[in-house]
Automatic annotation (TrEMBL):
Protein's recorded name: Folylpolyglutamate synthase
Gene from which this protein is expressed: LOC107900458
Cofactor stoichiometry and binding remark: A monovalent cation.
Primary role: Catalyzes conversion of folates to polyglutamate derivatives allowing concentration of folate compounds in the cell and the intracellular retention of these cofactors, which are important substrates for most of the folate-dependent enzymes that are involved in one-carbon transfer reactions involved in purine, pyrimidine and amino acid synthesis.
Statement: the UniProt record of this protein carries the keyword Chloroplast: no
Pathway the protein contributes to: Cofactor biosynthesis; tetrahydrofolylpolyglutamate biosynthesis
Reported cofactor(s): a monovalent cation
Family named by the database record: Belongs to the folylpolyglutamate synthase family.
Keyword list, A-Z: ATP-binding, Ligase, Magnesium, Metal-binding, Nucleotide-binding, One-carbon metabolism
SUPFAM superfamilies associated with the record: MurD-like peptide ligases, catalytic domain (SSF53623), MurD-like peptide ligases, peptide-binding domain (SSF53244)
Amino acid sequence: MLLALKERTGISSHIGADYSELSRVNPEVEKLPQYIFSPFPRLEQMPGSTCTFAESILRNCGFRTGLFTSPHLIDVRERFRLDGLEISEEKFLEYFWWCYDRLKEKTNDDVPMPTYFRFLALLAFKIFAAEQVDVAILEVGLGGRFDATNVVKKPIVCGISSLGYDHMEILGNTLGEIAGEKAGIFKHEIPAFTVPQPDEAMHVLEEKASKLNINLQVAHPLDANLLNGLKLALEGEHQYLNAGLAVALCSTWLQRTGHPIINFNQTGPLPEPFIKGLTTASLQGRAQIVPDIESPGNLVFYLDGAHSPESMEACARWFSLCTRDDNHLSNLNYQPQQHMDEGSKKDTAQILLFNCMSVRDPQLLLPRLMRTCASHGVCFQKALFVPNISVYHKVGSQALPTVDPQVDLSWQFGLQRAWESLMQSDKGVKPSNTDQACEEVKDDTGMRVTSFKNSSVFSSLPSAIKWLRDTAQKDRFVCFQVLVTGSLHLIGDVLRLIKK
């Protein structure tokens, strides 16, 4: 497994894999500020949740912050935040070409250009050093041990959030193997935190920590009562676990860098900057609610980048609680009943908009999603399966998506069959050959729409969005609540379409 990882990422040859090589290419790396490491959160599949909380806390404590996360949803600049804001296009291009030109000068047949993520990690180091941030928060990418972010030898503190079964083709087939890769960010005698983990994972983390003379500490979920009646900025009960870890990381960073908070402990009241940081943090595409600008009050999108079994379950709980609770509507910029008689109440209908990468197993994802929602009394009226329309390579808000008219929909049809079979079996009906019950028509744009009783396959995301808007316009007495999940690429594409 480790040999395959080396071959896949080119660890032995690519610039950035070794700290001395990184320093040679970019001498400013020696001036890097103190770092917090936090790996990719797996339980709720919210990339950067813990890092986002930590950045917001330290920014509200008065420090100049740099935050590096992945992936981006629409624009690559989202990965690089300075003082809570994504880097400007002007600065991004300046630093990008500075790094690219110098790397290009150093490359040859034996030392090629770094891979995509390695280049972005190096670019982050350059940005944070040049911008003279006080603290840089790095979200580890795919793994840990061999991750491009893991070149800083002496971070101030490290954190590992909830582990689950994801990227098993690279990280390992068991939680123990996955934990071993994640524990690669631990450094000798550097404080480290994690959250409550399954026994198999915790045993490996503790063993790795012990070998490095680290007293691994467990950060427990944040007590909501410590927020003075306010709510976490990131939705979902699971975020209290991430918030607890962020508080532990930040308090440790403050203490180790000579900025301790007087009389602060993990069980006492939270300092005001901590509360403000936790209640104002911002992260797109993670438990995010967006009303459609073309159908205000009739169509609301609930976006969550879940794409593992554990995160799908957390996503389903969040969506179910949101759609059962009308209170969240007061935070949106519309009044869903403004055109109706006083005292009347709008009906709601839940629709799923879904796609996932072919390396995922829909037989693990879709049952978790549907049955968790059903256990909370939420049933989907329709499931829509679509391809991603693009991957945005350009910089700037004017980058436009591309639509392939000859897109292969075989994967989407497979998702649809899995959903239909799941719906039938859940109702106690023996699964049938759903291919015979298929109806294929064309929409107003000429795109194919393939429908079953409980689901439809659209050949493009824009045609699915158009269908949703048309449906919402036809029935103004219903608020259509659309859960978008399964792929962060899908989340980014939807955001681009509904916000433009």
